[in-house]
Amino acid sequence: MLNAVQVLAENNFGDTRTGGLAGPMGLFLIVLLGTATVLLIRNMNSRLRRLPERFPQQGGPVETDRTDSSATGPSDGTTGQESRTNLPSGHQQP
Fold first, then answer.
1. Quick check: pTM over 0.90?
2. Which domain of life is it from (predicted)?
3. Does residue 34 have a pLDDT over 90?
């Protein structure tokens, strides 16, 4: 009976090496991911600080100096304002 308990209690899961690298490698990866996260947050904060406090309104007339056909408006015969008014409220045309 005691022999059967000893066989069942023995660690025989295939990882019997001493001095394995799983612990230090896991710590290295956690520190690396933490450092990358901190650097990403700092970068995004600096980019957000550079943005203007308010953006100009998107619906106003746009002055362009282009003379190509894309500056005249949509090709379906409507003006730019007509196509914008058909959008649901809260949506802006790109």
1. no
2. Bacteria
3. yes
